Fold this sequence. Notes:
By secondary structure, the protein is of the alpha+beta class. Helices cover about 30% and strands about 30% of the residues.
Amino acid sequence: MNKSFALKDMFPIIKEQLDSGGSATFAIHGTSMLPMxxxxxxxxxxxxxxxxxxxxxxIFYRRKDGSFILHRIVKVKKGGYICxxxxxxxxxxxxTEDMVIGVVEAYTRNxxxxxxxxxxxxxxxxxxxxxxxxxxxxxxxxAIINKLFGKGAKK
Length: 155
């Protein structure tokens, strides 16, 4: 039997598991990390970082408002991390060290675990971070087209 629990309710258990050197696994919810992670289909395994997270790592953190986020580090700055979902065009800063709960070690795709340290992920993460200008341009053009011809067009 599968049961669903809210992350906020499971957080004390997740934190205890990570603090004791273990890992935590849960299904992801949301579209910010598409196409790598699919909403309610894929799961991630997180661990406590053994060293300071670095550019291209995917971190699991908690915002000041209490929401839990899984995003990629796109830059490390003195005041914290600049993070962004692979399917997003806006950065979030600062994500400070005290907000970080863990880092993604692996994720599932078609019920198979894939390490974020694989060669495939090495190239994918760099592509997603370093081609953001293309995604921003695409979203801008889509918005113009939708405004002219689609949902936002005046009749």
